[in-house]
Every structure is written in C-alpha cells, then in structure tokens.
Design goal:
Layout (H helix, E strand, L loop, with lengths): L2 H8 L6 H4 L5 H10 L14 H6 L13 H11 L23 H17 L19
Length: 138
C-alpha cells in the first residue's frame, strides 16, 4: 500500500483501502471506521446474532451470484431496527472462494438488491423460511 493508494482514498477513488489497513490497538480500529465512507455491511466482515438473523429471515436466496448479499442483509437489519457493527480489524474472517462468473449472471445480484430496496421490508420472503411474512407471534 503506497502513498498513491492513500491519495486515491482521500479523493474517494479507492473503496477498499480501509479493509486492507491493519494497525494494532483500539484507536486504529476507530480511525479506520472513521475513514470508511461506506458503512454498509460486507459479507466477509459481517457477524450477526442468530436471533437477529432469524428476525429478518436470514440471507436472501434470490442472490444467485456473488456481490451485494451482505449489503442487502445489512439494509434489512437496519430496517428491523438493528445497527450492524463492522468488525474490520477486530475479528478473524474466512472467505469462501467463488469463481468469477459472466456479466449476465452477475446482474442477478443487482436485480435482487433492487427488488429488496423496492420491497423496503426487513423480512425476506426467500430466506430461511419461504414465506411472504414473518410468523405471527403468540
């Protein structure tokens, strides 16, 4: 990571620089969180309590290709009144390899994300349960 990367980040041209920065200590964690322009959750840097994930019906299975699934989940969690906390530099993460796919299939992620924004509901009909609405509470 060179000086050019930092300059690009300040200009808003380098979206992922704060994800690759590691400095020890809590102050550095707060600094990186402050530098991040995009506060959305990302799949590789996302941790959720089981009850919260169940509250929004889990991951949206309409996503057939890589990309945007974590952002969409964070969006629905916020609609449910939950504020995701980013764990960049605070937790070990593992990323499952997935091969790149052609552009036509990658557009399915954008369509699923757009449909979720239009629906504007925390509950996902195609998640853990295949239901249009959450079960009624007794």
């Amino acid at each position: 990571m060179g000086l050019g990367d930092w300059i690009d980040n300040l200009r808003g041209k380098h979206r992922n620089l704060p994800y690759g920065l590691y400095l020890p200590g809590d102050w550095s964690f707060r600094l990186v969180q402050h530098l991040k322009k995009n506060k959305n959750a990302r799949g590789n840097n996302l941790s959720v309590w089981r009850a919260d994930l169940q509250r929004v019906n889990g991951w949206n299975e309409d996503f057939e290709s890589w990309g945007l699934a974590g952002v969409e989940l964070g969006f629905r969690l916020r609609l449910a009144g939950l504020e995701p906390r980013l764990v960049i530099m605070k937790a070990c993460t593992f990323h499952v390899f997935h091969p790149r796919i052609d552009r036509a299939r990658s557009r399915s992620a954008r369509r699923a994300w757009d449909a979720s924004k239009a629906r504007h509901q925390p509950w996902c009909p195609n998640g853990l349960s295949k239901a249009d609405a959450p079960p009624a509470r007794a």
